Amino acid sequence: MNQSPIISFANVSKEYVLYKNDQERFKALFVGNKKFKKHQALKDISINIFPGESVGIIGDNGAGKSTLLKMITGVTFPTTGSVSVIGNVAALLELTAGFSSEMTGRENIYLKGYILGHNDDYMKQLEPDIIEFAELGDYIDQPVRTYSSGMRARLGFAINVNLKPDILVIDEALSVGDATFRKKCHKKINSIIATGVTVLFVSHSAESVRDICKRCIFLKKGKVVFDGETDAALRVYLESKGQVKKMGPNAVPIGKPLNKK
Amino acid sequence: MFQIFKEHKGFSKQIFLLSKSELKKTYKGAAIGPLWALVKPAFTIFVYWFAFSVGIRGSSEVAVDGVGDFGRFIFMVVGFTAWFFMSESITLGSKSIRQNSQYVTKVAFPVSTIMTFTQLARLYVHLFLAAIMYIIVVFNPQGGVSWYNLQFFFYCPLMFAFFTVLAWSTAPMAAFSRDFENAVTAFMSGVFWISGIFYNSYDMPLPLLNKIMLFNPINFFANGYRNTFLYNKGFWENETELYIFLGEFILIIILGIWNYNRLRKRIPDVL
Q1: CA distance B215 to chain A (A)
Q2: What is the pLDDT of residue A172?
Q3: Touching check for B57 and chain A: CB below 8 Å?
Q4: Using one digit for the tens of pLDDT, what is the confidence trace for B54-83?
Q5: Given B13, B14, B106, which is nearest A75 (Cβ)?
Q6: What percentage of chain B reaches a pLDDT higher than 70?
Q7: Is B105 an interface residue toward A (CB < 8 Å)?
Q8: By the CB < 8 Å criterion, does A79 face chain B?
Q9: Where are the beta strands (DSSP E) in A128-166?
């Protein structure tokens, strides 16, 4: 591959500082973070992801998956090393982040667009698609505070997937609305993947990962244990959990697939 | 180094929209909505006027050196108009990042613009109050219309800028540690009494105190508003005051850039 990577991690490490109490935190304001206890969430990670790839990220809780995703979405920053991401990232993680509950659904479409750095014209173009996808009917012109949590999530999802991202980050633990809408979401995600965007997929379910991703990164305690073919990665993953058997239809012991077609 | 300026570049439209939404949030779900912005200051002024002109009798006039005597009420109305904006800017400005933490921990967002759009929302309220104050001034026998009134367009933007820049330091620090946030609130509850809002801060019994008062930027603006609307004096006339203020402004800009840059990347991990 002589294409340049769309996401690139170079020797990235991330430490979270663990303050014992609020006094320590106050002190840290003035003396810096050197003296305090730290938790290393990522250790010397180097990854390159190329345009059009679908990459699964697997690992147990606390392996560093969320930290990795947060760096890609630009929310948190590495302690050492560097992260470079080229293009728009749509993260199906915090769907309702940035909503203002006093403003209407329609206003919030624009607000969310602004927050993500898009302009009026671009949002106007996408507005009909978003409204249609969210299926909110007349509620689109009501303040978001009157929405149920399902409606909020639907609106959030509709905005995020319609922003035509270059990179799509999906956390499978995501659940939006009822079964019919969930099915619609999965269809939409698959159609986005088909357009050739770069996809990062986080899951506990071996099966969904195998469905979507050709390549898979296995994280354990902040380190990349395996990076390569999905089948091989899953084998290593299950081995490390002491659950290795033959890979077969019933070799999906952890978690449950969210939605099988 | 100039991260803050970079973050603002090309984001002005978003800042404007977010400030509108911030304003809506402040007065949501109230029957008289934005009128609350007027009720609180009006009541506060009434209470202070009652205490000092009716309660403690004999102090219903404020003497200003070289200008004349002013009724306590008109003197206070002008000073308070600036004060309400300043006190809210300091306390709420320091809380702005924590109150908008979703923009820090959930999406990639130019964090320094939070301080700008929350401050902008307060500016709208201030302009509304200033318009009402101006009506009172115009119809007051000690007020009236004057060219000096145009100095509002010098003092007001400067006040906006000064307290926005101050929040570059206080907001990240308050987001980092609640102790700092509490310290600001505690400090502000006393600052009113050492600032010349309802008394003339440059009429102290000791010459040394008069000098010290020059170092309080709140005095610079409260006095500046009175220069503009009551004293008919130019902002350049008290040179010492102006230079001390400008010196402080530069210091606060430097501190703001330094504090923001060193804390920006640490904030998402602690919020």
Answers
A1: 25
A2: 64
A3: no
A4: 777 666 677 777 777 888 888 888 988 999
A5: B106
A6: 97
A7: yes
A8: no
A9: none
Nearest alpha-carbon partner for A39 in A19, A22, A11: A19
In this predicted structure, what is the pLDDT of residue B29? 63
Give the dihedral of Cα atoms B77, B78, B81, B84; nearest 10 deg: -80
CB A115 within 8 A of CB A98: yes
**Which residues touch A7 (CB under 8 Å, ≥6 apart)?**
A47, A48, A49, A72, A83, A84, A85, A86, A167, A198, A200
Coil, helix or strand for B20? helix
Query: For residues A126 and B270, what is the distance between their CA atoms, to the nearest angstrom?
Result: 35
Inter-chain CB pairs, A–B, below 8 Å: 77
Q: Which residues form the domain of B74?
A: 3-270
Q: What ipTM describes this predicted complex?
A: 0.73
Domain count, chain B: 1
Q: Encode pLDDT of A159-171 as tens digits.
A: 888 887 888 888 7
A143: DSSP letter: B
Pairing of strands A215-220, A223-229: antiparallel
The H-or-E segment that residue A153 falls in is helix A149-162
| The one-letter amino acid at A38 | K
For residue B114, give how far its alpha carbon lies from the nearest alpha carbon of chain A (Å): 11
Residue ranges, chain B, pLDDT below 50: none
Amino acid occupying residue A85:
V
Given a contact cutoff of 8 angstroms between Cβ atoms, the answer to whether B72 and B58 are in contact is no
Contact of A122 with chain B, judged by CB distance below 8 Å, is answered with no
Residue spans of alpha helices (H) in chain B: 3-8, 12-26, 36-49, 72-99, 102-105, 112-139, 152-176, 178-191, 207-213, 217-226, 239-263, 267-270
CB contact under 8 A, B176 and A89: no
**Residues forming a β-bridge with A18:** A37
**Cα–Cα distance, B18 to A103 (Å, whole number):** 11
Interface touch A17/B102, C-beta < 8 Å: no
Tokens coding A73: 């979405």
